[in-house]
């Protein structure tokens, strides 16, 4: 092949390996999972499979365990992200000022976010242990309160799981929103201040509108990431007690690697993907509306 003067052949030679890796690592498994979802394929019996059409999808929609996992996932995602956003914007506003030690405080905020999810789950599982956990110990020694079994009571366990996620990922909200606050122009704020606007009016009518695009992007990232949560919940509660904290990601794992129903697990995964796409597409629509594109 003849090399053109503009080096176009070289560009194509560099482009092809990247496309091969992309196709082999993402697109091929993507298509394979879709085809598998239309069969009764089991990993333990790979030679015994039949085409079942949309039966797996119908089964997933009517499966009470899948429905419960879906509700748990929505509660977990939107509960955690909402709390993280409120705390994130409040802390970012507090840190968006000149004070002594502010750099050290910002550095400390990174620590929970830098910990691996498995380590976070194991850490909080130990802290919340009924018999020798530090939290129950201080509740008893300081306040005379007998701490509950945090991870075994169905009414407490989901708020606890959400709280652990808030502890780990609120720093992400803080740092992202703080960067947005520091990138804003001071002119509109100073003009509103000169006109006699109160601090609340400054925030609600001047600062918040300028942050809308950043807020939507940060919320979109966190919602997508929260939908994928697996490690923390698995190590913290294993989806229990019962299935009270079983997210859809855990349900897919159980179906695929405990019951070995690969085709059915693929169908649940695709329904999961459709839900995430529908939710995130609304955020993207709002984002484009705000940016005027």
UniProtKB/TrEMBL annotation:
Keywords: Cell membrane, Membrane, Transmembrane, Transmembrane helix, Transport
Family annotation (PANTHER family): BLR7065 PROTEIN, INTEGRAL MEMBRANE SUGAR TRANSPORT PROTEIN
Pfam families with a match to the protein in the record: BPD_transp_1
UniProt domain ABC transmembrane type-1: residue ranges: 70-283
Subcellular location: Cell membrane
Primary localization: membrane
Top-level taxonomy: Bacteria, Bacillati, Bacillota, Bacilli, Bacillales
Domain of life (superkingdom): Bacteria
Membrane topology: Multi-pass membrane protein
CDD domains: TM_PBP2
Species: Paenibacillus alginolyticus
Protein name: Sugar ABC transporter permease
Annotated InterPro entries: MetI-like (IPR000515), MetI-like_sf (IPR035906)
Family from the record: Belongs to the binding-protein-dependent transport system permease family.
Membrane-spanning intervals of the chain: 12-32, 76-95, 107-127, 156-181, 202-224, 267-288
